[in-house]
Design goal:
It is built from 2 helices and 2 strands, in the order αββα. The chain is α+β, with helices and mostly antiparallel strands. The chain has a two-stranded antiparallel sheet with strand order 1-2.
Length: 182
Amino acid sequence: MFKNRNSTITAERNWNRGTIVTIVLAVFILFSTLLSAITFVVVYNTRSVLRGQLETATRQLAAARGQTVRYDFPLQQTFPFSTSIRLNETLDVPIDMIVPVRQQIIVPVEVPLVGNVELPVTLNFDVPVSTTVSVVLDREIPIETSVDLDTVVPLELQLDQPPLGDVLRELEEALRDLLGQL
């Protein structure tokens, strides 16, 4: 009898254990299914939000590519400038003029029997000068100065033109590809 009683208890225990394990596994399966459903809903909602954001970003990027950015870039700077210029030239200078000679000179003359006599001679004539004089210039001229620059440079960037336009177009295409994959 003792043996029979142990067999009954063991079968009963096995059935209780099996039932408990089955119930626990069923609870875990239900919990896992519920967790999977919640995860699916969250991923689907995230996908919907991400899709909306990607559509907005793609539209805004396409609109931005059609824009032109204007900016006035102020420049206020002093640039030092130091150089030397080498001149090695020959210049032909034409001279065409009349030189008036108006002067009185004393000419010593030796007169026989009298000796040396000084005679005043008045010069009153014009000398025509017509010639070309070659002037050789061989010099190095140093130049040192500074240039003050105070201006505004207008910049205009068209966002649809290369290279920035190419980058924006590639980004827009990548966003459209990503949107197509969602």
